[in-house]
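Quick one, probably user error.
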């Protein structure tokens, strides 16, 4: 064994370059995104202990109990938007919309709504006999499959801007 770090790095300096010029030059792009105003309301997903995966919604022992596919909304946002605990709301993003039951909760910070991951069992062809009785809202319907995170290039799956209104 012999030290070989300088020659195997293949960088111009022979050192580990933590801030290469290409990345430094690209910082203008995400900085511009940070300069944009934050949306009034965003939605995030959440996991639930009894439904870590959507197939768990089809197991009677795990599916029983209170309805879990609720949109958690901060009380101040609920009041501002005219939403009622236990009522239905329409959640809209980019021309796409879903309906969800509202759960007013201090657990959510103002400006953030949380909907659990893995629901929406009412699609054509669904063969989940237990889960289809309580299909819930599919958060993925709201996502724009062309939207990417400016730093990583990953698909944006959380923190998307929404509008929300009560359904009467």
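Nope, works fine. Designed sequence:
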């Amino acid at each position: 064994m012999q030290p070989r770090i300088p020659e195997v790095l293949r960088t111009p300096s022979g050192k580990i370059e933590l801030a290469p010029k290409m990345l430094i030059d690209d910082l203008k792009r995400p900085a511009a995104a940070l300069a944009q105003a934050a949306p009034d309301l965003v939605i995030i997903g959440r996991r639930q202990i009894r439904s870590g995966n959507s197939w768990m919604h089809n197991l009677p022992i795990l599916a029983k109990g209170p309805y879990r596919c609720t949109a958690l909304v901060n009380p101040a946002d609920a009041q501002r938007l005219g939403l009622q605990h236990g009522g239905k709301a329409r959640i809209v993003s980019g021309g796409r919309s879903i309906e969800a039951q509202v759960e007013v909760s201090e657990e959510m910070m103002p400006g953030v709504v949380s909907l659990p991951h893995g629901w929406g069992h009412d699609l054509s062809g669904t063969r989940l006999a237990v889960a289809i009785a309580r299909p819930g809202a599919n958060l993925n319907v709201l996502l724009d499959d062309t939207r990417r995170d400016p730093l990583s290039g990953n698909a944006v799956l959380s923190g998307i801007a929404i509008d929300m209104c009560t359904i009467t």
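Strands lie at 42-46, 70-73, 88-93, 96-104, 112-116, 160-161, 163-166.
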